[in-house]
Specification:
By secondary structure, the protein is of the alpha+beta class. It is 42% helix and 15% strand. The protein contains 2 helices and 3 strands.
């Protein structure tokens, strides 16, 4: 045990730098973890709903320039084909289309 007349050791600038460096590393790990979790959740939810059940026709756009996506916003194949003209895309019948109750098609 140290004699009572010896003053307690004071922290030096180097000690404080080491303390903050450890804190920075922990904060950086926490931020990285939160961002990784958020990206995983966003990617999962965005991929879950590819087809809008409110429209009967979808346009599948593909390729690096246009971006891979599914646009289910069309009322007819003709409307979709006119929009898809000249694009790397194809029109598809929406397999999840659910017409509103009470509506009849002629």
């Amino acid at each position: 045990m140290a004699p009572e007349w010896i003053a307690p050791r004071r922290r030096t600038m180097m000690d404080l730098t080491d303390l903050f460096h450890g804190l920075e590393a922990r904060v950086a790990r926490l931020v990285f973890s939160v961002l990784a979790l958020a990206m995983a959740l966003v990617a999962t939810s965005a991929r879950a709903q590819m087809y809008d059940p409110n429209h009967p026709v979808c346009m599948h756009v593909y390729g690096e320039l246009a971006g891979e996506r599914m646009d289910c916003i069309f009322a007819s194949l003709a409307q979709c084909a006119a929009t898809a003209s000249g694009l790397p895309a194809m029109c598809l019948i929406n397999p999840y289309f659910a017409p509103a109750p009470g509506r009849r098609r002629h």
